[in-house]
From TrEMBL:
A Gene Ontology term for the protein's cellular component: cytosol
Family according to the record: Belongs to the ThiD family.
Protein name in the entry: pyridoxal kinase
GO term, biological process aspect, one: thiamine biosynthetic process
Record bears the keyword Zinc-finger: no
Provenance organism: Floricoccus tropicus
Length: 254
């Protein structure tokens, strides 16, 4: 029986591996009732992808439709421009729910100035509201303005990101530190915790979106933050491991 409600704000992925499609599939696995607000539609042509932002009035209308709905967690995905980021940040100020922020700020439509502008807005308006942020290494480097080459760098960047206001963070290390392991770093301002899993090559597209939405799902169900992160890493690992050639998960439940 569905008891908890959850909200996702993000972009649509036409290939259904990431974005709100991945979020909704994850929420269904956790037996959550999901609401969504669409920020963009991603299309693919001739091996190139294109991020088509929704009109700001349409997003504003979506968010106003959701103002009076109480949810147990909110997951934020792709915010493709500063106007959409501003609208989302203002909406979150009036919601009393944990916020799980996947700071997707790197895609080919952005020039260097736009990336810098979006970075500054993330730091000013979104990170201070977040319960958990889940940047990958590139996003962590951009947000902190520091390079990450090893675990020591990762920990220093975690401290910088924590100083911007999120209550907790996970830096997704992928296999940059070790080729055969996916290594993530959790930090709550007091203690570092390292999470490791073997690298799985198949069907890992959208793993970051699924990881963040799994964290959000656990938190919506009352699990504490670190256990939510640990559960989410296991969920993603098992989902990839048990997927078929189309990326559909078989014989696995959270």
């Amino acid at each position: 029986m569905v008891t908890e409600k959850i909200l996702t704000i993000g972009g649509s992925d036409i290939l259904s591996g990431g974005g709100i499609q991945a979020d909704l599939a994850t929420y269904a696995n956790y037996n959550l009732y999901a609401f969504m607000a669409l920020t963009s539609i991603v299309t693919v042509k001739e091996d190139n992808f294109f991020v088509n932002s929704v009109d700001t009035k349409i997003l504003k209308d979506q968010l106003e439709s959701l103002e009076n709905i109480e949810v147990s967690a909110i997951k934020i995905g792709l915010l493709p421009n500063k106007q959409i980021l501003d609208l989302t940040a203002d909406f979150l100020k009036n919601k009393n729910a944990p916020i799980i922020l996947d700071p997707v700020i790197v895609f080919k439509e952005n020039n260097d100035y736009e990336v810098s502008e979006i970075r500054d807005l993330f730091i000013e308006k979104l990170l201070p509201q977040a319960t958990v942020i889940t940047p990958n290494l590139i996003e962590a480097e951009i947000l902190s303005n520091h390079k990450i080459k090893n675990m020591s760098d990762m920990k220093e960047v975690a401290k910088i990101l924590y100083s911007f206001g999120p209550k907790n963070l996970v830096i997704k290390g992928g296999n940059r530190l070790e080729q055969d392991k996916a290594i993530d770093l959790f930090y709550d301002g007091e203690e570092f915790k390292i999470l490791e899993k073997a690298i799985l090559i198949k069907n890992n597209y959208g793993a970051g979106c699924t990881f963040a939405s799994s964290i959000a799902s656990n938190i919506a169900k009352g699990v504490d933050v670190y256990d939510s992160v640990r559960n989410a890493k296991e969920f993603v690992f098992q989902a990839i491991k048990n997927s078929n050639e189309y990326g559909v998960v078989q014989n696995y439940e959270c």
